[in-house]
Amino acid sequence: MAKAFWLGIIGGIFGILAAVLVVMIGGIGEAFSATGASSLYTNAAGAFIFSIVGIAGGLLEKRKILAAALMFIGAVGVLISISLFGVLTLILFAVGGILILMQNKEQLAAALPTAGQNAG
Q1: Which helix (H) or strand (E) holds 2?
Q2: How sure is the predictor about 61, in pLDDT bands with cuts at 50, 70 and 90?
Q3: Share of the chain above pLDDT 90, in %
Q4: Which residues form the domain of 9?
Q5: pLDDT at 79
Q6: What does the DSSP assignment read for 16-46?
Q7: How many Å from the N-terminal Cα to the C-terminal Cα in the chain?
Q8: In whole angstroms, what is the distance from residue 29 CA to residue 100 CA?
């Protein structure tokens, strides 16, 4: 298991925990009749879904481009859904996506012949 896999799992867990925290804050807001507290439930649901998308990106690490795209989508989605609560998830998913893309670049460079080698 590579680093990007674990970053995806840990980032997803933090995203899900942040979504649960947002639901609890929404419940407290509704208990005190705060305006707009019910919209926190939909924001938390979005963060939960995007956390699952990021975890899927970490699990699909063998398919480099798809995995990196899913992790970036999850990172931005969580940040948009729950803003400051999703910053840690954003960082972990983004670093995982960058690591996946860097692995892809290293494998491509290793497969290409160097400039000093002849093809024949």
Answers
A1: none
A2: confident
A3: 72
A4: 3-104
A5: 95
A6: HHHHHHHHHHHHHHHHTT-TTTTHHHHHHHH
A7: 38
A8: 40
Tell me the two tokens of residue 95.
Answer: 């670093």
Mean pLDDT of 90-106: 89
**In-domain check, residue 82:** yes
In a domain, 113, yes or no: no
pTM across the whole model: 0.83
Residue 32 lies in a domain: yes
Q: How far is CA 21 from the centre of its chain?
A: 18
Q: Does residue 114 lie in a domain region?
A: no
Q: Which amino acid is at 54?
A: G
Question: For the chain, what is the domain count?
Answer: 1
Provide the token pair at 85.
Answer: 């609560």
Residues 6+ positions from 5 with CB-CB distance below 8 Å:
58, 59, 61, 96
- Coil, strand, or helix at residue 7? helix
pLDDT, one tens digit per residue, over 17-39 is 999 999 999 999 999 988 888 89
Neighbours of 91 (CB within 10 A): 15
